[in-house]
Amino acid sequence: GYQLVDYVNAQKPSSVLDVGCGYNKFKGKIHKLIGVDPYNNSADIKLPLEELSTTMKFDIVLALGSINFGDESNIDNQMKIIDKLFRKEAIFRVNPGIAHDWADYGDIVWYPWSQKKIYNIAKQYDYLVKDMKIEYTVQGHKRFFFIYSR
């Protein structure tokens, strides 16, 4: 939370996009942030990532739990979109199947993130994996935090 806010603000970004911002809790904490979310009225833009139509590039894109759902094709499509959106860094937290007891996920298919997939994406787009952490493991599912930089 706050470490991420400090990290992003220290880079003095001209623009930041929070994909899947939820309640937009970083708004007012991270400078020049725009939150996009398909479901939450607190977002600045209430749309799915796939419907976001902009030629704007953001210094930093945050995807903190939003690129978790669907099959390989769905994740690859979302990564193509994110690739077009950021200039400097894309910061991810992926949560492959660690359900929260307060949420109803219905029939959602969790994407099985792995270190191999993270590094394959980096290779595909010629990114540097600036940071990679396994935050915790629950029932065999690892939650990863990583930063892609150009």
What's this entry about, in short?
With 150 residues, the protein is of the alpha/beta class. It contains three helices and six strands, in the order αβββαβαββ.
Low-confidence stretches: none
**Percent helix among the residues?**
10-25%
β content, as a range? 25-35%
Order of strands across the biggest sheet?
2-1-3-4-6-5
Give the mean pLDDT.
90
Shape, principal axes of CA atoms:
globular
Largest sheet: 6 strands, mixed
Q: Count of DSSP E strands?
A: 6
How many angstroms does the end-to-end distance come to?
23 Å
The string of secondary-structure elements, in order, is HEEEHEHEE
Structural class: alpha/beta
Cα-atom radius of gyration: 15 Å
Number of helices: 3
Describe the structure.
The chain has three helices and six strands. 23% of the residues lie in helices and 29% in strands. By secondary structure, it is an alpha/beta fold. The longest helix is centred in the middle third of the chain and has 14 residues, at 72-85. A hairpin with a 2-residue loop joins strand 5 and strand 6. A six-stranded mixed beta sheet has the order 2-1-3-4-6-5. The model has no long low-confidence stretch (mean pLDDT 90). The protein is globular and about 35 Å long.
